[in-house]
Amino acid sequence: QVQLVESGGGEVQPGESLTLSCSASGILTRFFNMGWYRQGPGKQRDLVADISSESDYISYSDSVEGRFTISRDNAKGTVSLQMNSLKPDDTGVYLCNAQTLDVNYWGQGTRVTVSS
Q1: Which site in 46, 53, 66, 67 is 20 to 30 Å from 86, CA atoms measured?
Q2: 83-105 per-position pLDDT tens digit
Q3: d(Cα 6, Cα 112) in Å, to the nearest integer?
């Protein structure tokens, strides 16, 4: 059974940092592209950052470029998202995604609230 379990969410003030982690089981992550998506209140699910299976391709949404860093450890089956200089617009549920051309897996999400 495939499971993606996110952790690290919480409530912070603007300008603070959080690190999200996603732990995968039931798959060999080295065969998957991994990503983090965000679903804000009343908004659609948007890609925040993704990283290719060998970490040779990384992309970020314009809204987080320069503030967030995605990384992965295939030996541990994990992908992380370091989030700095958080803004209220970063508020939402952050979901981990693992995909190939054939399959697409999602975690349940971890909530991040940025509020003063």
Answers
A1: 53
A2: 999 999 999 999 999 999 999 99
A3: 12
